[in-house]
């Protein structure tokens, strides 16, 4: 027991030092007794968690310190690219990392640069097991009691944390998501654990009342909404003007900047906001990954409302069905047909992903084949990161690669504009987030991308106007515009949320 207490004290001290060093003068740790006790309690729980697997105090202590250090390093890297620290929801994405390593800026386990360090780490753990004696009692029954008792104790703590009075105390400490402030006050491990518990306690709450459904439409009505991967006006990055932007300014019914929930990643946040019309505040602790909570079963789903109004619904995305669990989520949202990577077999690729222009041609084919009113939601893939050497022949600079891809995105949207002209249709295009480029770091444009709405088959109205929106406001605008164009425009102008820049 003395060895365990000493190892625990060392783990607490070193873990605190690690987080203090990582935060530095910019994010100093809180030394208030209440905040510090929460932080140290989380370290202690981490140590006990690792003790379950080894029953070697110094190995458990070292594992705790390495875990805290690993969380600090990953959080620092994530802040540099995305602008926010590690969240509990990120752990739900871990199974995707070995299947899609490039999308997570890492390498496959079979790569020697990843595989060899992992094997070395396993060898060190094995050696440590051999060198450090276990603290389990020598007799069988007491040893069995320890082996079973500690996991049961930790499981009991988890259950207690979901019930009064402990649940109320956690809710008082973490009333709402404020992740940077909470990490500074309580530390990364405590914040991850508390946010996970708060998410579990609140995820069943009703997110919002259903928004009004559009009325039944004529047989030729079409609504096409395209989420453009990492799209912003390239002139904002110092690139050449994109002809599409001139088309937008001259022909769009409405256009502007779109404030999205994240920078450089987390496509699902913007996607969810547009498809449901729900803002981040209404999602509570589910805002970090909205698909973890309702998983597309929200009553405000635009696809579900479209089906109720007599529309066919289709989702088009030239990538794996399992990524973000998109297939399951989109079916839950109410999309009847899914057109995904297997449907693009043989389609031309630019770099690792399907050419946006081929994607656009598939969209027009789906519209042409529709036998009634159609709501189609598409998500492009060509301009997904990472932009790194070897992606495009003779073009290794990340910004140059991005600008090469974004030209194809512009050509695709212009082809959609031409292809839908003459129909009674609405086309909406928007960027899901800014690109995670070295020249486009967090804070760029206040997480704003660009969007445009085109309307066809109706008399031309006044000259296009710039109206800056949030992603959830765009989702609500699409419903209003579908039902009544004049009212939709009025509502959009009341939803201005992004300063002109």
Features of the shown structure:
single chain; 501 residues; alpha/beta; Alkaline Phosphatase, subunit A; 2 domains; two-stranded antiparallel ribbon; 17 helices; 11 strands; elongated; disordered C terminus
Helix and strand run: HHHHHHHHEHEHHHEHEEEHEHEEEEHH
The strand count comes to: 11
What is the CATH superfamily label of the largest domain?
A: Alkaline Phosphatase, subunit A
Largest sheet: 9 strands, mixed
Structural shape: elongated
Share of helical residues = 40-55%
Separation of the first and last Cα atoms? 62 Å
Structural class determined from secondary elements: alpha/beta
Approximately how much beta-strand content do the residues carry?
5-15%
User: What is the number of domains?
Assistant: 2
The CATH topology of the largest domain is: Alkaline Phosphatase, subunit A
Q: At the first level of CATH, what is the class of the largest domain?
A: Alpha Beta
Q: Mind telling me which CATH architecture of the largest domain this is? A: 3-Layer(aba) Sandwich
Average pLDDT confidence is: 88
- The low-confidence parts are 206-210, 484-501
If you compute it from the alpha carbons, what radius of gyration comes out, rounded to the nearest whole angstrom?
Answer: 26 Å
Number of helices: 17
């Amino acid at each position: 027991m003395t060895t365990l207490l000493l190892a625990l004290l060392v783990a607490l001290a070193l873990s605190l030092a690690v987080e203090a060093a990582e935060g530095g003068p910019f994010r100093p740790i809180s030394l208030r007794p209440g905040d510090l006790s929460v932080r140290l309690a989380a370290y202690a729980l981490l140590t006990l968690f690792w003790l379950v697997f080894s029953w070697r105090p110094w190995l458990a202590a070292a594992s705790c310190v390495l875990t805290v250090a690993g969380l600090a390093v990953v959080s620092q890297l994530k802040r540099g690219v995305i602008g926010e620290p590690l969240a509990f929801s990120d752990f739900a994405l871990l199974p995707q990392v070995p299947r899609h390593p490039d999308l997570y800026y890492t390498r496959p386990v079979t790569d020697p640069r990843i595989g060899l360090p992992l094997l070395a780490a396993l060898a060190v753990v094995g050696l440590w097991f051999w060198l450090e004696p276990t603290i389990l009692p020598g007799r069988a029954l007491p040893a069995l009691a320890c082996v079973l008792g500690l996991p049961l104790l930790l499981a009991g703590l988890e259950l207690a944390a979901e019930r009064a009075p402990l649940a109320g105390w956690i809710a008082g400490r973490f009333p709402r998501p404020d992740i940077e402030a909470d990490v500074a006050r309580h530390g990364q491990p405590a914040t991850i654990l508390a946010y996970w518990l708060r998410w579990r306690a609140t995820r069943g709450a009703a997110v919002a009342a259903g928004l009004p459904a559009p009325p039944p439409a004529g047989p030729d009505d079409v609504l096409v909404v395209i989420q453009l991967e990492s799209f912003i006006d390239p002139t904002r990055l110092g690139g050449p003007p994109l002809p599409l932007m001139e088309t937008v300014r001259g022909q769009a019914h409405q256009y502007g900047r779109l404030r999205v929930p994240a920078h450089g990643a987390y496509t699902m946040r913007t996607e969810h906001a547009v498809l449901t019309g729900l803002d981040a505040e209404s999602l509570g602790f589910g805002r970090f990954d909205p698909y973890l909570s309702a998983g597309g079963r929200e009553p405000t789903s635009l696809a579900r409302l479209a089906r109720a109004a007599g529309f066919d619904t289709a989702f088009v995305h030239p990538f794996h069905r399992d990524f973000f669990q998109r297939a399951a989520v989109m079916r839950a949202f109410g999309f009847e047909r899914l057109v995904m990577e297997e449907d693009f077999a043989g389609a031309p690729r630019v770099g690792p992903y399907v050419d946006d222009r081929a994607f656009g041609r598939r969209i027009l084919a789906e519209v042409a084949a529709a036998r009634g009113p159609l709501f189609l939601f598409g998500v492009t893939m060509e301009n997904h990161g990472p932009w790194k050497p070897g992606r495009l022949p003779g073009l290794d600079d990340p910004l140059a690669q991005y600008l090469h891809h974004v030209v194809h995105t512009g050509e695709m949207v212009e082809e959609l504009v031409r292809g839908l002209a003459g129909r009674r249709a609405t086309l909406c295009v928007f960027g899901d987030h800014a690109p995670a480029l070295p020249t486009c770091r967090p804070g760029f444009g206040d997480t704003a991308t660009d969007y445009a709405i085109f309307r066809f088959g109706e008399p031309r109205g006044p000259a296009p106007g710039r109206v800056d929106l949030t992603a959830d406001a765009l989702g609500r605008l699409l419903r209003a515009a579908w039902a009544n164009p004049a009212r939709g425009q009025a509502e959009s102008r009341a939803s201005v949320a992004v300063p002109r820049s």
